[in-house]
Amino acid sequence: MNTNCWAPPASTAPARAGRPQRLLSLREAAFYVGCRSEQTFRDEVALGLWPPPLPLTRLSGKRKRLLWDILALDARISELSGAAQTGAVLHPDHDLDAEFDFGNP
Questions:
Q1: pLDDT, averaged in runs of 10, over the chain (105 residues)
Q2: Are 25 and 9 contacting, i.e. CB atoms less than 8 angstroms apart?
Q3: In whole angstroms, what is the distance from residue 67 CA to residue 78 CA?
Q4: Are strands 64-69 and 23-24 parallel, antiparallel or unpaired?
Q5: Which helix (H) or strand (E) holds 80?
Q6: Please, which of 41, 64, 79, 94 could form a disulfide with 35 given CB 3.0 to 4.6 Å?
Q7: Is 70 exposed, middle or buried (0-12, 13-18, 19+ CB in 10 A)?
Q8: Residue 58 to residues 51, 53, 67, 100, 102: CA-CA distances in angstroms?
Q9: For residue 2, what pLDDT is reported?
Q10: Alpha carbons 23 and 72: distance in angstroms, whole number
Q11: Sheet with strand 64-69: strands edge to edge
Q12: What's the burial of 53, exposed, middle or buried (CB within 10 Å: 0-12/13-18/19+)?
């Protein structure tokens, strides 16, 4: 197994009839914001770069569930990129790879 490659987490949740997933696990949130490891993401959360997880606990009250709201992560990304101030929104079909000639030999 190649441990040098960070792959997207495999979803264990059942398909939700076209609805996107709103809450992300630690691994999913780390991958979503481009961190190469969960520890890097944890460190960046502790430094205040990313929003903290939602304060959820299991019904038993014993184990805390760490889940991040994808909208909070998106808002922080927009804030960091300056898109929040300009109101800039990319169309979902906008191809940044083609615009910046990434992936073309």
A1: 53 58 94 96 96 78 81 94 68 58 57
A2: yes
A3: 20
A4: antiparallel
A5: helix 70-81
A6: 41
A7: middle
A8: 21, 14, 12, 45, 43
A9: 46
A10: 10
A11: 23-24, 64-69, 54-57
A12: buried
Q: Which helix (H) or strand (E) holds 65?
A: strand 64-69
- Look-up of token digits 């960091």: 80
**Is the four-CA dihedral 16, 22, 26, 30 of positive or negative sign?**
positive
Residue 85 token pair: 């101030």
pLDDT score, position 63: 67
Q: For residue 28, give the amino acid letter.
A: E
Rounded alpha-carbon distances, angstroms, from residue 82 to 2, 87, 97, 100? 36, 9, 20, 19
- 62: its two tokens: 């014993």
